[in-house]
Please model this.
Amino acid sequence: MANIYYDQDADLGLLSDKKIAVVGYGSQGHAHALNLMDSGCQVAVGLYEGSRSWAAAEQAGLTVMSVSDAADWADVVMILTPEPVQPPLYEQAIASGLKAGDTLMFAHGFNIRYHQIVPPPDVDVSMIAPKSPGHRVRELYMEGQGTPGLLAVHQDASGKAKEMALAYAKGIGCTRAGVIETTFEEETETDLF
Model:
């Protein structure tokens, strides 16, 4: 039987001294960034120069910076851009900012599962995938509820990758509804096929 985690299983305090970069401000990106901010986390949005979302994110009260600056600044980097652009974005703007002990996160497993992105061995690689469009992730969070989600750990360099992922899931409201543990492979293949 699958492991399912709720609020009591997650410690938001693990993120209290972490800087979180949410890369992208589309459907999922805006929901993750705003929910994390409202949960008391230190969060910034990473966008490409000239992005139409830049002003919207700033108007929502978020700090916005270039993707490379966000990756340099952050301890946790969640990539929420469309999957086809993730590998070149990772190579050009994120990889050089990752430091030993950082956490690299995804909301879908494709680019890790099919080796389009190969992170260094000294960072945690995990996934929190809300099972709802971003606007609903935001709406339910604001109503005091949450969206169910999936959790997977691909690489546990710190020995705390799962705990950090659960803290992130709590920050966006997923542990209110329940987070099911899976793998990058299972999540990718069930989504595709």
Notes: The chain is about 40% helix and 20% strand. The mean pLDDT is 97. The beta strands are 4-5, 19-23, 42-47, 63-66, 76-79, 103-106, 124-130, 149-155, 179-181.
